[in-house]
Amino acid sequence: RKFLHAVGGDFSRRRTTLRILDNVDRQNQRYFAIVLLVNVAVGLAIGAGFFAMGLDRPMVWGIAAAVLHTIPYVGAAMLAGAAALIAYGQFGTLQMALLAATIPIVVAVVLGIFVQTWLMGRAARMNTPAVFVSLLFWGMLWGGWGLLLAVPIMVAIKTLCDHVERLKPYGDILGP
Q1: From CA 130, how far away is CA 86, in angstroms rounded?
Q2: Which of 136, 161, 171, 162 lies closest to 150 in space, CA to CA?
């Protein structure tokens, strides 16, 4: 209410503002649902990979992978390093350590970068290159927080562009 009061103007301007906020909220809910779904898929895939190679406690590794995948890029790197150390300790060979490090990286690249970016673009009604560029931009600007908030920020910007007549061409550029 305070925000709508601060926006001011006539009833139609407030209604448009409320519609924009509702769209941003709906699309961000879809985004976070996709992040949750992809993180679970990453955890299952990495747990299955570690189970197949015989690494101890693959379920724990899968849960750790799902949680660490919320930290884009860095989470997979931390998991790969830890898995390599544990695999070397368990199996005593460099090949198994490299295999254990490769599994989280490959899964994170395939599911986390390609599939998640594509799904986020569809959920946010943005094209995949726009999502990828926004991840790069906000990630460079704010680091891990920028990677986490890139899509919600771009959803808000695109929704605003879609509802403000002068900004519609920019919304079209970001759209699918």
Answers
A1: 38
A2: 136
Q: How many degrees, rounded to 5, is the angle at CA 27 between CA 23 and CA 33? A: 150
Q: Report d(CA 28, CA 123) in Å as an integer.
A: 8
**Residue in 132, 112, 110 with CA at minimum distance from that of residue 121:** 132
pLDDT tens by residue, 65-105: 999 887 777 888 999 999 999 999 999 999 999 999 999 99
The residue to which tokens 């599994």 are assigned: 103
For residue 143, give every residue at least 6 positions away whose Cβ sits within 8 Å of its Cβ, in sequence order, or none.
none
Full-model pTM: 0.71
Q: What is the 3-state secondary structure (H, E, C) of 116-130?
A: HHHHHHHHCCCCHHH
Q: Which residues contact 166 (CB under 8 A, 6 or more apart)?
A: none
DSSP string, 19-39: HHHHHHHHHHHHHHHHHHHHH
